[in-house]
Amino acid sequence: MTIRRGDSWGITGPRDGTSPVARTDRELHDRLREGAAIVHLEGGDLAKALGASVHAYSASADVTIFPIDAYEVTWTSADGSVSNAPCHSHCVHGGWWREESWWFSAGGFVHGHEILPRSHPNDGIAEVLHVRASMSLRQRYDARKRLRWGTHLPHPDLAVARGTSLAWEAKRSMPLVIDAVTVGHAVTVRLVVVPDARRVSIAAAVQ
Predict the structure, then answer these.
(1) CA-to-CA distance for 130 and 152, rounded, in angstroms?
(2) According to the 3-state scheme, what is the secondary structure of 158-187?
(3) pLDDT at residue 142 is higher than 70
(4) Nearest to residue 65, comparing CAs of 204, 197, 179, 196?
(5) Angstrom distances, CA of residue 94 to CA of 26, 73, 131
(6) CA spacing 20 to 30 A to 169: which of 9, 53, 124, 161?
(7) What is the DSSP track for 46-111?
(8) Domain map (residue ranges) of the chain
(9) How many CB atoms lie within 10 A of CB 177?
């Protein structure tokens, strides 16, 4: 069941010693695609969003288990071919420094930068930041510096879309990255939320 504002989230208890560890978003993606019931996070953007701390963990420590949403990404290449892949942490279409781009993050962070401060990995909603082509290089540089604190919004050349299904189209084919892996080049992209699809754990906070 997806979380609502004010609800408690996560269950704390002993860690299942058989659950694999992911220290990057790519490892999280791979472990979940391999069918792991729970993946223990010790690094990556989703781990950062959940407040994971490697230093707080020991083999005998408790963990907090969180249900998270997954996201199905479907894209069309310049030749008209259609591909799809699951996403668990982030999806980036294009690049920050030129032209337009789109940035999705389950927990708000992409490469450690807080792209989408309101995003939550289990609310059944996806948020995508659109960087418009009209944004100047200087504005991009200034906004990039503010990403560290999530204070780049609002901005007239940055727009956030929210929904259970989001789609966009670029003027030309651009690189598409899913969970830190470049999966190809795309012209159109569609992202659909799959609520409560996966579970992850982090080291429980030390009291």
Answers:
(1) 12
(2) EEEEEECEEEEEEEEEEEEEECCEEEEEEE
(3) yes
(4) 204
(5) 19, 15, 10
(6) 124
(7) HHHHHT--GGG--TTSEEEEEEEEEEEEEEE-TTS-EEEEEESSEEEES-SSSS-EEEEESSSEET
(8) 11-68+197-203, 70-195
(9) 20
Q: Which pTM was predicted?
A: 0.87
C-alpha distances out from residue 117 to 37, 78, 108, 160, 165, Å:
28, 32, 5, 11, 19
Kind plus residue range of the DSSP H or E element containing 45: helix 45-50
Report phi then psi at 137, rounded to 5.
Answer: -60, -40
Sequential DSSP letters for 122-151: TSS-EEEEEE-TT--HHHHHHHHHHGGGT-
Chosen CATH of 70-195 out of 1.10.10.10, 1.20.1330.10, 2.60.40.10, 2.60.200.40: 2.60.200.40
Query: Which pLDDT score is estimated for 207?
Result: 40
* Residue located via tokens 């408690």: 8
Residue labelled with tokens 């450690």: 112
Torsion-angle region of 49 (φ positive above 0: left; ψ -120 to 50: alpha; else: beta)? alpha
Say what the pLDDT of residue 59 is: 56
Distance between the two ends of the chain, CA-based, in angstroms?
A: 28
Q: Name 168's bridge partners.
A: 189
What's phi and psi for 50, nearest 5 deg? -85, -5
Q: How far apart are CA 174 and CA 180, in angstroms?
A: 15
- pLDDT tens figures, 161-201: 999 999 999 999 999 999 999 999 999 999 999 999 999 99
